[in-house]
Design a protein that fits this description.
Helix content: 10-25%
Radius of gyration: 19 Å
Number of strands: 14
Number of domains: 1
Number of helices: 3
Strand content: 35-45%
Distance between the termini: 34 Å
Shape: globular
Length: about 220
């Protein structure tokens, strides 16, 4: 076989690989809240360590893309979790024990449900491996990337509202994004959960933390 033919085959293979890679690229917006402050200083974080922050909600709205070859454009998925310890610098890897539930978008078809669950398990880290319950519910999710006003409602189980942090949210003046987000993200900002409530089943707990500096608002791109 000539060098020209070998080169042509290599180019065709590379183009095919890149096309497949692009075809399964997934992008969208992300919201997160925890039962501890994430936009904070070390003094406040140390006071909450081992006492708060054992619970969290992670949510993705897929604006475009496919996962496992299935188009998930316009669908959302939510992962709720509770652990034995604070979800801190190590995120979902910090607690000795952890369990989670997944809420799938009610609009999803059967094959999309399977893909959404696979997506959530892959991108929720250890929480994706500790799923004890899967529910389906209507999910409303939005994020204004300018104002960082976010909104999430998953049936009667999860309610979350977010906004950017402002000067009056600073108490010790050492506030930073103290704990990293629980998911891998492209661009993110820590802020305030104007409302944050979990009333789902399967985790053995419910909680509400309005007005807490506990939110992350972000965009994501996964390949």
């Amino acid at each position: 076989m000539s060098r020209l033919m070998l080169w042509s085959l290599a180019v065709v293979s590379l183009l095919g690989w890149n096309a497949a890679r692009g075809a399964d690229e997934v992008s969208g917006i992300y919201l997160e809240t925890r039962t501890c402050q994430v936009y904070t200083g070390p003094c406040f974080a140390n006071a909450e360590s081992a006492l708060a922050g054992k619970d969290a909600v992670m949510a993705w709205n897929i604006e475009s893309g496919k996962h496992a070859g299935v188009d998930l454009t316009g669908l959302s998925v939510v992962v709720c979790m509770t652990g034995s310890d604070t979800l801190g610098h190590g995120g979902v890897n910090d607690p000795k024990t952890l369990k989670s539930t997944v809420i799938l978008d009610e609009k999803a078809t059967g094959i999309q449900r399977d893909a959404l669950l696979s997506f959530a398990k892959e991108h929720a880290g250890r929480a994706g491996k500790e799923v004890v319950r899967v529910d389906s519910a209507p999910i409303e999710m939005s994020l204004d990337l300018g104002s960082l006003d976010g909104h999430l409602k998953a049936g009667k189980m999860v309610t979350l509202g977010t906004r950017k942090a402002v000067k009056t949210d600073c108490i010790c003046t050492n506030e930073v994004a103290f704990y990293p987000p629980l998911a891998k993200l492209q661009n993110f900002a820590a802020g305030v959960s104007t409302e944050a409530e979990y009333r789902g089943r399967g985790l053995g707990t419910t909680w509400s933390t309005p007005g807490s500096r506990s939110a992350y608002m972000a965009t994501f791109i996964y390949e």
